[in-house]
Amino acid sequence: MITMKNLRRESALFSIALAALFALAGTPAHAQASARCDAQLSESLVDYGRMTRAQLLERQPDPARASLGKRLVTLAVVCAERTAMALSFQGAAADDTGFRFAGNGRFTLRIVQAQLDGKPVRLAASHADATGSAPSSLLRPGDRMSPMDGAGLAQGQRLTVQLEIEPFVGVAATRVGAESTWEGAGRFEVLSR
User: Fold this and answer.
1) In sequence order, what E strands does the chain have?
2) Cα 183 to Cα 106: distance, rounded to the nearest angstrom
3) pTM greater than 0.85
4) What is the distance between the alpha carbons of residues 129 and 110, in angstroms, rounded to a whole number?
5) How far, in Å, CA of 18 to CA of 20, rounded?
6) Tens-place pLDDT, residues 73-132
7) Considering only CA atoms, which of 134, 156, 138 is closest in space to residue 147?
């Protein structure tokens, strides 16, 4: 069973927790916006419910790890005036492409689509702009993603980003003697320039 709970506002902080029994469970993570912008996250809790080892191993992308499945959340940012924005996710890094989950596991955040003032935009990491690298759809540890138009930063008042969350665990971690709870967390940060 998948349980989604609504976002609660707590003094300009918004929470997202990745949660489940024998899956993804959590302590709150946050989405924080600058003083000139307000951020809202569609889901504060993503609950994968209870799974058996057999169910988990059905979604095994390679022999060493299993996926708990993909879930979508939407981050919406509204600013008082047109501005250049940057989005980052602050969480414990598991490696250079994902965040720590369930001990030795990891979860990834992939940008599915982004719109600025109702028009599709691409998000690019600040380091990709400097190196000329092709933009990635992964939101990686340390990345600060900004909407781009043509060759430069795009400005706007409303940014909507749909993100895909996918947690992975090592196959060895699926061998448990009792019901286990796994978790991952972090905080979205939206900065205006």
Assistant:
1) 3-5, 9-10, 13-19, 29-33, 37-41, 45-47, 65-67, 71-90, 99-101, 105-116, 119-120, 122-125, 145-149, 152-153, 155-170, 184-185, 187-192
2) 10
3) no
4) 19
5) 7
6) 999 999 999 999 999 998 899 999 999 998 889 999 999 999 999 999 999 986 544 444
7) 156
